[in-house]
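pasting for ref
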Amino acid sequence: MRKLLLISLALLLAPFSFCAAEGEIIRFPAKPEKGFYWPYFIYLPKNIDKAQKQTIVITPANTGKSTNDDAQMEEWIKREIEKNYSVYSVPDGLGAPMLMPAFPRRKSEVVPHDFDRDTLLAGGSLKRIDLQLLSMFEDARAELKKLKVETNKKFFMAGYSSAGAFVERFVLMHPKRVLSAVSGGNVGLPTLPVKEYDGLPLIYAVGIFDLQKITGIKFNLSAYKKVPQYIYEGAEDYNDPFPYSDIYGEAEKGIIKDALGADIRDRWAKAQEIINGLDANIQLHTYPDIGHRPVNSDAVKFLKANASGKGLSKIVPADTTIAQSIKDMAAVVEIEDIVFGSSNLIGESVKPYIDATDIVIILGKEQSAFFEKEREMLQTFRQKRKCPFDINTGDKTLFSTKECRGHFSIEDGRIAFHINISAEDFNNIKKSVKYTLKPRTAAFKIKENIYLIKG
């Protein structure tokens, strides 16, 4: 199962940030009699004006982690609201209440957090989570009214990465309920509002070819075109969902490859061409020089500009261009230490996001200070280089690593990457033996006499 799963509202793909939301978080329980089988959270920003009628912003949950313990999942979701600036900055910026559903993300191939095909076909308590979310919304309106907050009948939607995919797919099914929406980070694969492309049927979640068959919903193109949407990507975003089975099944992958291509940039270019051809109220944008991270200032700007739901009011996107001199300075990462995720260097605030078996590579203080100022370069560097290393004992390669799960600051302020490895690989590492981490690319340099040692 893919662990680095389109996480952008999740902390794992952005620099860890532990400032806290200042508003109030309220949990509401599941109410099967009202049509929803899972709890939801309401976040009330400190700056909300209760004298004004408010538009609720729905942000799908995206923890980026799976668990079969539903109570733990709720804690993770609550933590996302409370601690993740990428989540609470949108309702704070709007001064509006936010609803976040607490759908589970169990250790299976069903990923409700991005509303994929398996989820749409699921039964039991996960049956039609889109309808469950609509029921949550109506319940939230009633609960907010008790708190003296009057709300509009339509809602905003905002999400990034898996949550962005959820938003895009929800708007396709229920365009008349959405006032305006912002989504990003689906990495060249927004679910397309067309049945076929180049003679190939685009089944859900690639397109809408069989949407009516599996949901009973007839796609309403006219209503869809009226919804103001802002859909964006980072030009340096390499967090590709295409290879992973918990995102797309084999049938969907075959269609994506044949119709849109396996290359991220080709897919995004074709997706833009298709969407622009609809003449819909959709603004598409590619941010230069950024990787897999949300641009929430523009999300707030767009939702505010399109609060009337009448036509499309385009925004001027933020300039994310990075100077070439800074890019040159970030060309190589120099590694000063290598430890496991169980190390005492990993602070308590970070440990919930780091596996004890992760390999953690730590940068020197000078380079850490540079990257602290140029966080976007670190993010882009990490995604583009993928952290490919050989783990060697003597002249023998024990195993190789591929992708970084994220970066963060350790207790002494230095910046670190963490790389997930399999339990089998971890078990093959013997205690007290010195292992070397050998870069498979010139983008990394390691200080001499630095070893990976299992205690």
